[in-house]
Design brief:
By secondary structure, the protein is of the alpha+beta class. It has a single domain (25-258), classed as Hypothetical protein, similar to alpha- acetolactate decarboxylase, domain 2 (60s Ribosomal Protein L30, Chain: A), CATH 3.30.1330. The protein is 19% helix and 38% strand. The chain contains seven helices and 15 strands. The protein has helices spanning 5-19, 36-40, 50-53, 118-126, 162-166, 239-243, 251-258, and strands at 29-33, 48-49, 59-63, 70-74, 77-81, 87-89, 95-96, 99-102, 108-112, 135-151, 170-186, 197-204, 210-217, 221-228, 230-234. The protein has a seven-stranded mixed beta sheet, with no helix packed on it. Strands 9, 10, 11, 12, 13 and 14 form a six-stranded antiparallel beta sheet that branches. Strands 2-7 form a two-stranded antiparallel ribbon. The structure holds zinc ion. Zinc ion (ZN) binds at residues 61, 70, 199, 201, 212.
Length: 262
């Protein structure tokens, strides 16, 4: 039997509604610029301005053109944490080569007690998420007796790999600071595209300190978890990306630059 198109579509949307809580039109979306493997390979040329990126969210993390420090977006403002440790608001005309953004709206809020490490904090958060196969935006606010952060120095073309650039990273250990962790938890199947697991950047309440988080201790505060049903990517169109060999994924290189070296 041949059904009229509208009937077929109506039937499909009923079936789809059972399996998907998101909408393709809007809703909770993770919007990402470029891929993590492109960044690992040294594709540091920005392609999207922060003015434009603001349309994709008010909350997120990433980096700046020429890998000029760590980027954190909170409450609609973009901050650069440069390799000298200084925090500045990012002008709308500056561009990013890699970023992940969303409009943060907490689906679940939990009170957090004393936590002895970033790993322990991640385990605590893992106990609250419904599945490891989805994306989550995570915001943690409170007091940090210790937080270890890093930032990467500005590069110039021809760009080195991220591994080479990160060898000259600046490490900062902050003590007794109040602030916010801004980040995402990505599923393991995202390998090559984004960072599987948690990835946090930090900004202090006084907007003076921050960076990519390597470790922390935590006394008290709150975590908000936003489940994201949509995932969208904006891909670079420049020669560096078009000609890059992205057939291989170097997991060890990514681990080495994103995690704490023990
Ligand atoms: Zn980072």
């Amino acid at each position: 039997m041949k059904l009229p198109l509208c009937t077929t579509l109506a039937a499909f949307s009923i079936i789809a509604a059972v399996h998907f809580t998101g909408s393709l039109k809007a809703g909770d979306t993770l919007v990402q610029v470029s891929t993590i493997d492109a960044l690992v390979q040294g594709i540091f040329d920005g392609g999207v301005s922060f003015g434009e990126l603001g349309k994709a969210g008010d909350f997120g993390i990433g980096t700046l053109d020429d890998l000029d420090g760590e980027m954190l977006a909170l409450d609609g403002k973009f901050y650069q944490i440069a390799s000298d440790g200084k925090v500045r608001e990012i002008p709308a005309t500056v561009e990013t080569p890699f970023a992940a953004m969303t409009f943060f709206k907490s689906d679940k809020t939990l009170a957090l007690g004393a936590t002895e490490s970033l790993e322990a904090l991640q385990k605590r958060l893992d106990a609250e998420i419904p599945s490891e196969n989805l994306f989550y935006a995570v915001k943690v606010t409170g007091s940090f007796p210790m937080i270890k952060v890093r930032s990467v120095p500005k590069q110039s073309p021809p760009y080195p790999t991220l591994t080479e650039a990160a060898k000259k990273q600046s490490l900062f250990t902050l003590e007794n600071v109040r602030g916010t962790l801004v980040g995402f938890r990505c599923p393991s199947w995202v390998k090559g595209i984004n960072v599987p697991g948690y990835h946090f950047h930090f900004l202090s309440d006084d907007r003076q300190h921050g960076g990519h988080v390597l470790d922390c201790t935590f006394t008290e505060g709150e975590a908000g978890i936003d489940t994201l049903e949509n995932f969208r990517m904006l891909l670079p169109q420049d020669a560096a990306f078009l000609k890059a060999d992205l057939t291989k994924h170097d997991e060890k290189a990514l681990e080495a630059v994103e995690k704490l070296r023990k």
